[in-house]
Fold:
Amino acid sequence: MAFQNPKLRPGQDIASELKEWLWNDMPNLPRDAVNGAWSVTEEVVKGLNAWMQTKPDLTYMEYLTGIEKERGRSPWNDVSFEGTDRAYAAFPELSTNKIPKGMISGIILNEVLHGGDPFDPGEDLSVRMFGTVRDWQGVENDTASVGPAQMQIRNIRYLVEAYPQLSQFKNDPVRAVLDPENTPMFVAAYLCDKIKVLETYNQANKDKPIPVCSATLAYLYNPDVMSAKGDCRRIDEADKLATKLHIDTRKGWQTESYPRNDEIVLRSKTIKDILSATRACFQ
Structure:
C-alpha cells in the first residue's frame, strides 16, 4: 500500500528533498539560479524542517487521514500502546540495546500501512477459522504472513518455542498473533531474536561489525535490497509480485540478508518506513 500522496511525512527532511527536487527535477534552470534561490530559502525551509521533527503526530495526520478514508477504518485500530508497554517490559534486551519502545508499535503500524497484499484478508480469515493457513493439498503454508505485524507462520511457531515470555500463546500461537493486544509481544521477541543474530554475525565478522540499532533491526524485519556484481537495488513491488507468481525476475541478483554496508542502508525503503512510523508512535 503506497502513501496517498502525503505532503508531510514524519521524519521527512524537507530541506534536503526540496533541494534535490530543484536540482534534479528542474534541469533546465541555470545552476547558479538554483543555488541562488536555495541560499535565500534554505534557512526558512530548515526551520520548517526542524519544527516538523518536533511534531510527529501533526505531520502524520494527513497521511493517516488519507489511509483511513480509503480503507474506511483507522490504521491505529491495529496498534495497541498498552500491548507495547507490556512487551517492552517483558523483553528488557530492547532497552539494554537502546531500542526505543515506539519501534514495536512502529513496525506494526508500518506493516498495517505497507505490508498487505491482495491475499492477506483471506489468510487472516483462514487463521481465524482453522488456526493456520494451508495450501490446496492441506499442507501448512508456513511462509504466509499474517496479523497486523505481517509475521510469517514459521517465525511465529519458532518464537513461541524460543521465548518463555510467549509461553501463554503456545496452544494457539498463529491465531493469537491476529489480536492487536498480543502482536507487540511477538514483534518484541522477533527484535530480540534479531539482536542475537547480529551479535552472532559480529562475532564472525569482527573486522566489519554491524551496529545493533533501530535502523539495522528495521532492515532485518524485512530485507529489501538485492545485489549483483557489486551493484545494489531495492526489491520493488514488481519483484514481489513476480515472486508470488513464481516468475524469476532476479537473474543473478541476491537478497542482502544483512545491512552490512552504507549503500544497503541508504537504498532500503523498509528502514525509512519503519523509522518514520516509529517516530509517529513515540510515547
Summary: DSSP finds 14 helices and five strands in the chain. The beta strands are 145-146, 151-152, 225-228, 231-234, 254-255. The chain has a mean pLDDT of 79. The longest strand covers residues 225-228.
